[in-house]
Amino acid sequence: NVVKGSIAMGLSMLLLSVVLAVIASNRITGHLAVVSKAAKEIAEGDFGKVITIKTGDEFEDLANAFNFMTEKIRGNIRELNNLIEELKKRDIQKTQFLANISHELRTPLTASIGYVDYMEKEKMGSLNPDQKHSLEIIRRNLERLNKEIHSLLLVSKYTLEGIKLNPEKIDISELIENIIKNFTPEVTLKGLVIKKSFAQKTLTGDKDNIRTVVENLMGNSIKFSAPATVITIATDIENKENQKYFKFKISNYGATIPEDQLRKIFEPFYQVDATTSRKYGGIGLGLSIAQNIIEAHQGKIWAESKDGLTTFYFFIPQGG
């Protein structure tokens, strides 16, 4: 009987231990499940999550620490959002400032160009060869400055107002030929040869904006071409997934653009290196403007550069 009693007591104690272990395990598992679920919800963006565990032990301490952490996160997010809003406000102010200063600069600049034109036509008296040469230099630099100011105005306008398109059918071959004629002095000065291939002679798009894109890409290619080299311009049509795309490309030989900078060159004011602006001039807006216009047409623009050959491409959808 004593043995049986001992065995029964032992079994009872064992059973009690198992029951208590199961209860403790369920309690621990339940609390951990609450913490785990809250952590997942926070990971998914619900930073307002609060854990409530009132046990007076380590689990309550863990819940309090967890809530303290999420409150800190919420505070950091509020600060970050305020900072973002402030940066947006300052960015708009910067853009408005650029627009205002560009407008103020352009007004006297236009008058200066007008006076140079007036003098070149000898309406203020006859000119000797040296005076004509000096006026030519003044005009060239005034026109260059006018172009940069126009770029600033465009960037400001696109940032504040967006790009409004007026699509029409464009004779792209004629447009490119006219742009090439405008660059004749620069092409001649560097001894460049321009080769053209117009497999596709028309496209639908905003004519003025497309002209700006081609002018910027052409000017960029001429500027960075090595002397006495070839610039190649080509247009084509490409079909992808029942969609037609107008394709433009322009290639030139010069310095290779590092691969890690091929995307950065489309950022406003970006220069490949610090000497670029001093050596070639410009403020780094032409490619950024071109990208804004092409993307407004739901198209894509990019560059490739290898072994001294740099090529710029853009695609514009033309319907099915």
Automatic annotation (TrEMBL):
One of its GO terms (cellular component) is plasma membrane. This is histidine kinase. The keyword Transmembrane helix applies. PANTHER family: SENSOR HISTIDINE KINASE CPXA. GO terms for molecular function: ATP binding; phosphorelay sensor kinase activity. It is a multi-pass membrane protein. InterPro entries: HAMP_dom, HATPase_C_sf, HATPase_dom, His_kinase_dom, HisK_dim/P_dom, HisK_dim/P_sf, HssS/ArlS-like, Sig_transdc_His_kin-like_C.
